[in-house]
Amino acid sequence: MDKIRIVGGNELKGTIPISGAKNAALPLMIASLLTEEKLILENVPRLADVALLQRILGNHGVDITTNGKRNGDDPYAGQTLEIDARVIVDTIAPYELVSKMRASFWVVGPLLARMGVAKVSLPGGCAIGTRPVDFHLDALRALGADIEIDAGYVLAKAPRGLTGARIVFPKVSVGATHTALMAAALARGESVIENAAREPEIVDVADCLIKMGARIEGAGTSTIRIEGVPRLKAARHAVLPDRIETGTYAMATAMTGGDVMLAGARPDLLEDALETLRHAGAEIDATNEGIRVRRNGAGILPVEVSTAPYPGFPTDLQAQLMALMTKAKGRSRITETIFENRFMHVQELARLGARIQLDGDTAVVEGVERLTGAPVMATDLRASVSLVIAGLAAEGETMVQRVYHLDRGFEKLEEKLSRCGAEIERISG
Ligand SMILES: CC(=O)N[C@H]1[C@@H](OP(=O)(O)OP(=O)(O)OC[C@H]2O[C@@H](n3ccc(=O)[nH]c3=O)[C@H](O)[C@@H]2O)O[C@H](CO)[C@@H](O)[C@@H]1O
Ligand SMILES: C=C(OP(=O)(O)O)C(=O)O
After folding, report:
1. What mean pLDDT comes out for the span 419-427?
2. Distance (Å, whole) CA 342 – CA 295
């Protein structure tokens, strides 16, 4: 299995192009199931999760053409997918595929709304918490679906179609909001989603659905209104920039010191995280090109942060912030409120010399003078990249194993960092 080898100590200097957002690209690809006409998605990142979803959609009969043509010489330009879901040959999403990636469960809403039936495996075991799907199923039930669970599969039926309804989520859920939004787009009559997730990726999906002819108001607020339409049509949409990738490289720069332009990044998508970085001593400037991050000379200052649904500090940047705080001048407190078990990086960061105590849902991080390289391994995507950030500032060699987690969510990670001066390489084997 591949590994990432890092020799820490170099400042980051240069430009890092920001890719399209994984967490928008996935539901956007799934939205293609809602229409018999072609959906063209631009700026889709080249990631393992995207490739897996291509296989899952292919299994339903969806035809996807990848236009690999680059923008001039730009090796970092996103790919364009032409997605044709005219014929759905199979409404079953099997365990072998769904168990590998949670977002693949989200095919349930569009399949049910368009085909009147869907059989989708419950998502597999996850490394960051139990992650049930009850809100998704309750939303589909509210829209009139009959739902049974049998042998690890959700069997959803609505032979006469879905009917608009009021859906009130007990807790903010990104995935359940996607499910409700996509299903309601083809339901008869009006639906109202209350306590909806406000994440930019929800807005991106809603914008694309509107281009496809859906009638949606309020995406980006807690109340989304949808007037169902009988069918959706062809559209072309560009995936928004990845705010988590942006925040990750911003933290890497704050960690090593230096001066990096995050090209194509949009500051409005991660204001809370950028504010946290300013408190930590980084200089952050929005420019026409993207976001410029600098830390010159001054050390890293400790922060107190709680993760929260958007617009709060994202749980998907919690591990990266913790890596940064391992070298802060003082004690930080980082509280995880979204997932009950998203601290697996703590033990691995400790292998590099970090001093972190867990107190329930809060990690108390005592900054240390120096980290020292070591072999490490993580069990999820963001935890893995937190080890990369720590490795960039550790003395000596850090070897990050289980690279497939990184490949799920970070396009060309080692290239993007090494062209900014990091000593980082992939070792195949
Ligand atoms: C592909 C994608 O976009 N993944 C993101 C999405 O995951 P995902 O959509 O799975 O996360 P949710 O927003 O649904 O999870 C929020 C909380 O709600 C709980 N919950 C969720 C659904 C449900 O039916 N029942 C239930 O109890 C979850 O266990 C969790 O505690 O949002 C998370 C929170 O921002 C991010 O960390 C993930 O990167
Ligand atoms: C947790 C994540 O993804 P997923 O929801 O696909 O597990 C993530 O992107 O950090």
Report:
1. 97
2. 28
